[in-house]
Structure formats: structure tokens, C-alpha cells
Amino acid sequence: MSLNVQHDIEQDCLTLQFGNHFDFSVHRQFHDACLGKTRSRSYVIDLEEVESMDSSALGMLLLLREHAGGDHAEIRIVNATTALRGTLRVAGFDKLFTLH
To answer: What's the pLDDT tens digit per position in 32-70?
Structure first.
């Protein structure tokens, strides 16, 4: 269970960096970091170290999108492996989030 949170105050951008697994084990940290506060202008979800993610991770991303303003949300998912990008595309997340 690992989640590193950085807030760039000047840009009002919240960056979330996950450990090896993005799953329900980080739910509380995820909620406290971004859902329990006023929303930031933008978000970066860094999946560089993530080897696997489950359906609860997808649900958390959807909750973040709703919290951040739905269609007007600025959320970038970065550094995902080819396999994770494939999973996100199959789930239709490439239409809801910006994938880099």
C-alpha cells in the first residue's frame, strides 16, 4: 500500500504516484488526498511503478473525475505500461481521461 501525494500550489496541480499496486488497499489514502478536500485545478495520476490495478482503482479514478468536475476535469494519467494503457482503453477510460 503506497501512495505519494504532491501538491504544486503555484499550478494548483495534485500529483498522485502509486506503488506496485493500484487497488483497494490505497482507497483511504486516495480519498484523503483528493476526494476529502476542495478540488484542485488539475490532477496527474502517475502509474510509473504500478504493475497491476483492479476494478476498485478504476472506480477511484471515476470518483476523482466526478469530484474534479466531470467533463470539465483536467486529469492526466501518465507513465502507464503498455498493458495498463490497454486495460484503460478497453474500459473506455481513454475517452474520459488524458492518457500519456
So the answer is: 988 877 889 999 999 999 999 999 999 999 999 999 999
Q: Identify which of 52, 66, 54, 43 has the alpha carbon closest to the alpha carbon of residue 19.
A: 52
Grouping H, G, I as helix, E, B as strand and the rest as coil, residue 28 is helix
Domains of the chain listed by start with CATH number: 3-99 (3.30.750.24)
List of residues 6+ apart from 91 with CB closer than 8 A? 58
Distances (CA, A) of 99 to 12, 22, 60, 75, 87: 20, 16, 16, 9, 12
Cell of 27: 482507497
